[in-house]
Every structure is written in C-alpha cells, then in structure tokens.
Amino acid sequence: xxxxxxxxxxxxxxxxxxxxxxxxxxxxxxxxxxxxxxxxxxxxxxxxxxxxxxxxxxxxxxxxxxxxxxxxxxxxxxxxxxxxxxxxxxxxxxxxxxxxxxxxxxxxxxxxxxxxxxxxxxxxxxxxxxxxxxxxxxxxxxxxxxxxxxxxxxxxxxxxxxxxxxxxxxxxxxxxxxxxxxxxxxxxxxxxxxxxxxx
Length: 199
What we know:
Elements: E1 3-4, H1 5-20, H2 26-33, H3 35-39, H4 47-56, H5 62-75, H6 85-89, H7 98-109, H8 125-137, H9 141-152, H10 156-164, H11 170-191, E2 195-196
Parallel strand pairs: 1-2
C-alpha cells in the first residue's frame, strides 16, 4: 500500500513556512505548537528518532524566537547558516549564482510562481520546501523528484548540518534535524514509488 501524497505534502508545507516566515506572525508561531500532529501524518521508518526530537524540542517565547529567526534567516552580522542554495553551490559563495538561475528556470518550466512580497532569492530553503509541497499537492511526483535531486538535496545537507550546530536557537536546530530526516526519507519514498496519489 502506498503513502498518501496529500498527507506527505503537509510536512514540507509546514516546515517550509517555519523556515521562511518569521514567527513574529502569530499563525507561524502557532505552527510550532501543532507540529507533532503534522509530523504524525508521515510514515517514518524510525518513529523513535522523530519522537525524541519532538520530546526534547523547546519552543521559546514568541519574541525570543522572532529574534532568533532574524539572526539566522535575515542576517545580523555573520550568518552561521545562510539559507540560500547558491551560498553552498557557488565556488565564491555568492547569491543569485548559476545554480539559482537553473532553479529559476525549473520553477518557470513547472509554472511555480511565488509572490510573497519579500525580496528573497528563490533558492531559500523554506521557499524550496514550499515549492516541493505544491508539486506534491498537485501530484506531480516526477517534478518533485527533480526538485529534490537536482536542486535541493545538492546543498541542503550542508545547510541543515550548520543549522543543527548553531548556538543561537535550539528550536531551529531541532527543526533542522526534523527536516534532515524528512528529506532523506522522502527521497527514498519517491525514488522507490512508495508515494501514491490514490493511497
């Protein structure tokens, strides 16, 4: 029996929102408190790992988490874990590099348009998860696999490792750990045909 693709799509939509939007927005902050329910919709191979992360995860007050988000994702001084793919894929660590242009072409080819009102390169980690969620919601599994293998997984492990090791926010370190586990399992599920639009 396959894994329902609509259920799977809830997790990258939730994680994408948490990695892209500031928790200064009340509905984003509230997502953290409902994360366990969304995570339970995914068929984890190792439930003990995800249960441990959720059990140990601490959610600070909204104002504290908003500050942590600002430091980690918007930049105040040197960023310990820049959330843009080009930083890891470009030899000089520059934004808007050749990898960004390739990903932009992929988005255009797949009619994926994002108008968040923010001046953000398309290869921001959370924004890429939101694109992945949209493809899964539309049951376009081939395009979702292409996004994963050619655009996201080429750099996300380096980024998520840095974020897990950050000393600014244990909460975002836990989210990075969840995202790492999810992407590894999703890649296998798509590659081996375990995700089914009719499940």
